[in-house]
Amino acid sequence: MARGGARNRSGPAPDPNSARSDARGLRFDALPAEGFQGEAPEFPFGDMSGRESMKWASLWRTPQAAAWAREPWRWDTVAMYCRWAVVCESPDAPASVLAQVHRLGDQIGMTPAGLRENGWSIARDEVAQRREVKAEAVAAEAPRRRLRAVGDQ
Fold first, then answer.
1. How far, in Å, are 64, 82, 122 from residue 32 at the CA level?
2. Angle of helix 75-88 relative to helix 50-59, nearest 10 degrees?
3. Cα dist from 107 to 44, 125, 133, 134, 139, whole Å
4. In terms of Cα–Cα distance, which of 101, 68, 104, 75 is closest to 86?
5. pLDDT digits (tens, 9 = 90+) for 18-40
6. Left (φ > 0), alpha (ψ -120 to 50) or beta: where does 46 sit?
7. Rounded to two decimals, what is the model's pTM?
8. In whole angstroms, what is the distance from residue 61 CA to residue 76 CA?
9. Which among 19, 27, 2 is positioned nearest to 120, based on CA atoms?
């Protein structure tokens, strides 16, 4: 039995904003918040059901797919996750399958812990957020301007 040493998920998770992470050169790859815009590869296990096809297409629109596209060796794991995630949609899916889907989700970065383990973070689109805030502010101010133009009568 292994003893001592660093293990997956042992100790506090690395903080990409800390000085210690800077000193160690820890950088998280930023994945696009809008998701992957490229083509999904062919399903590696041949035939798939209609639900698996829908799940495969939706997985390849996630931000994580931008990293998978650069790492074709992960595609089999993504396909296994897809296939078993569909099995887990059944109300009578065994707990052992649910556990394996969670483990596969960690491996391909579909969980917060998996994102950290892979050194990924999902980039926030701050420009779009500012645009929304500005649009809301303009919409809130517009009625006041019209009322001021009329005056008190």
1. 8, 21, 6
2. 130
3. 17, 25, 36, 39, 44
4. 101
5. 666 666 656 677 889 999 999 99
6. left
7. 0.70
8. 17
9. 27
